[in-house]
Amino acid sequence: MSFEEYKGVFVFAQQVDGVINNVAFELTSEATKLAAALNTEVTAVLLGSDVKGLADELAVYGADRVVVVDDPALKTYTTEPYAHAMDEVIKNYKPDIVLYGATAIGRDLAPRVSARVSTGLTADCTILEIAEYKNALGNVNKGYEGQLFLNATRPAFGGNLMATIVCPNNKPQMATVRPGVMQKIEPKTGAKANVEELKVEFAKNNKYVEVLEVVKAVKDKVDISEANILVSGGRGVGSAENFKLLEDLADAIGGQVSASRACVDAGWVPKDIQVGQTGKTVRPNVYFAIGISGAIQHAAGMEESDIIIAINKDESAPIFSIADYGVVGDLNKIVPLLTDAIKNA
Ligand code: FAD
User: Which pTM value belongs to this model?
Assistant: First the structure.
């Protein structure tokens, strides 16, 4: 099968209420590296209603071109119209690679699109590379010599091994990437996007669901994946009530509280502050790991933090092997002392 007409690295640029999700900028940034390896361009795909004005923001983070589908049918995200619009973009432009953020929207949209265009999808990738299609022995598979593919790597079997997945016989090659995993490039201030509008017709069967009302959760805190300082608690904190110690520290230092899965499973804290493989990937400037053992599934979500400070009563806890600073001792004593010291400083 010849795929020569499939060209370019495309990124689904998720926006909600006219605000582009940070993961879109992370992906256009990462796409610049993939595109350079393939000697091609980065295209962002912007779907929505009245969104054309956002295109330049994507150029600032590496998009050479922005394909816009602007239609009232795309005002609020629903699966059918968005999947239909992406399907049309792919059929018209024939991209080689399409990337999506592994957000709630990206995770809903990407599999639908992959089924429509009869291609594969590698979910929750942490590494993307352009390389040959090799077998387990490291040899290029027969019939694929001299060809380059998207090698998408993701944790498998509870994070105990990394699986590299290649989709050699279908185009486009598609992957979702979790927010916070890829790093943004230096912004190209003042960059202007080359915008192309694609007109898509929406029929009744592209709109099975009608959104009657959008009720937003009231949030007074920043999303943990956007926070600069995280004060993260584990099972060692002992109870929901004891998380007050961490909240006091977070307030004193201007941070946010997050947690390990053990605390979420125990019902002490909500799921949206869980860090790790099945929670969120975070990359704050400072990450306090308090009463957290440092299991591989937790580390997978926070080990890229700039500075990791661990407080744990067990000096052999694995968290100390990835921490920049460590305090061995009882968190119930250390955390209040630390909070007071910060308040007094
Ligand atoms: P523990 O491992 O029980 O560690 C508690 C720590 O607190 C210990 O090191 C102990 O020494 C210390 N401690 C206890 N009392 C005190 C005290 N008074 N003072 C100081 N230190 C104290 N986990 C995640 O966090 N995020 C994920 O996304 C995630 N995804 C998973 C996905 C899969 C498929 C699987 C199988 C597991 C996943 N896990 C995840 C669970 C993970 O394997 C661990 O079980 C979990 O991270 C442990 O949480 P913890 O470190 O809080 O608890």
Answer: 0.77
